[in-house]
Specification:
345 residues, 36% helix
Length: 345
């Protein structure tokens, strides 16, 4: 199963995809042609793009579904800027703090109070843009992948995945680390949680105390993903069409959202969008523990194939794809930034 390959997972999964990308680039005579799939987003959303810049493109209908957010600079005045924006947005603690440029949940923090916010903000490097965003309390978190060819009036949902945060229940005498190692379902990923927990891993949980191991909803950080393809409905597809066609020239990517229930999701109701991700997004059902490597390859190739076709179509319409050098610069900038962020919650 894909999620249990171990440390070589990225090499095993992504090396063939890199070769496929190169072959498709040769076929279309431009290695960056896929970036034109979302031509208004830097690199199409492959890397280095601003999260807030994508959300800022949303029209009035899509904006109402997006969790309120604002951007402020890190540095010595970050706390003042953040608290002013929290008040302006009408938010209350807890709130989410995250880098405006990033991926895989790196640097995402939850500030439960003003004091915790004051502690968190100095962990980020100076002179970067940070986002403060409402923490949506709805219990169901999903990643929904949406594709719409430029000449198609309607798009389709190619993947729906539920995200869950593993949790432990205390027995009154075992530490968090001991409970982790006793849990066979989490044993393979224990090192991910222990690295983040540090000395807190030695804390003994009270009997029946509930402890959530990860906040950021990303498989790299230890979240668990479940394929929800069976819950894709015409109503949900129509809702995504309405929302994402309100984001100019957005054709390929994934929304991360929360909903109050699976039934509401299937009805396409009460979606609260956290992020809109472009070309660099994955159909994250591939990280469901039951997904085979062959199925993951097929999903990746199908999605990137669609991105290249859409990019080629948009190029004919006059949009200019990113050059390979622009893509490399964006990736190197993102890589430097990721290395400077604090460990996520």
């Amino acid at each position: 199963m894909l999620s249990r390959i171990g440390l070589s997972t990225n090499v095993v999964l992504y090396t063939p995809i890199v070769f496929y990308w190169i072959l498709m680039g040769l076929r279309y005579r431009h290695l960056g042609i896929a970036t034109a799939a979302n031509p208004r987003i830097e690199t199409g959303g492959l890397c280095g793009e601003s999260k807030s810049a994508i959300l800022n493109m949303a029209g009035p209908h899509a904006s109402r579904a997006i969790a309120p957010y604002a951007v402020f600079p890190s540095g010595p005045h970050a706390y003042r800027h953040a608290t002013q924006l929290i008040a302006k947005l009408g938010l209350s603690f807890p709130v989410v703090i995250k880098p405006d440029i990033g991926c895989n949940g790196t640097g995402v923090k939850c500030a439960s109070s003003a004091d915790e916010l004051r502690t968190i903000l100095p962990l980020y490097p100076d002179h970067i843009d940070l986002m403060v965003q409402e923490l949506i309390a709805d219990p169901i978190e999903v990643g929904v992948f949406y594709i719409r060819p430029p000449d198609a009036p309607k798009g389709h949902i190619s993947s729906l995945t539920y995200k869950t945060s593993p949790a432990l229940t205390g027995d009154g005498h075992s530490s968090i680390a001991e409970l982790l190692h006793k849990n066979t379902a989490l044993n393979d990923t224990a090192h991910i949680y222990l690295k983040r927990l540090g000395k807190n891993a030695n804390r003994i949980l009270e009997k029946d105390e509930h402890f959530t191991l990860v906040f950021a909803g990303n498989h790299c950080k230890g979240s668990v993903f479940h394929n929800g393809h069976k819950d894709i409905t015409p109503e949900l597809t129509n809702a995504l069409d309405t929302l994402l066609q309100d984001v100019p020239d957005f054709h390929f990517g994934r929304i991360d959202a929360k909903v109050p229930s699976i039934e509401a999701l299937k009805r396409g109701e009460n979606l609260r969008i956290i992020e809109i991700n472009g070309l660099g997004a994955e159909a994250i059902h591939i990280w469901d523990p039951t997904t085979s490597l062959r199925e993951a390859y097929a999903a990746q190739i199908a999605h990137y194939g669609a991105a290249f076709r859409i990019g080629a179509h948009n190029r004919k319409r006059g949009w200019k794809p990113s050059s390979p050098f622009a893509m490399l610069r964006a990736w190197l900038r993102q890589r430097r930034l990721l290395a400077s962020y604090p460990i996520n919650d």
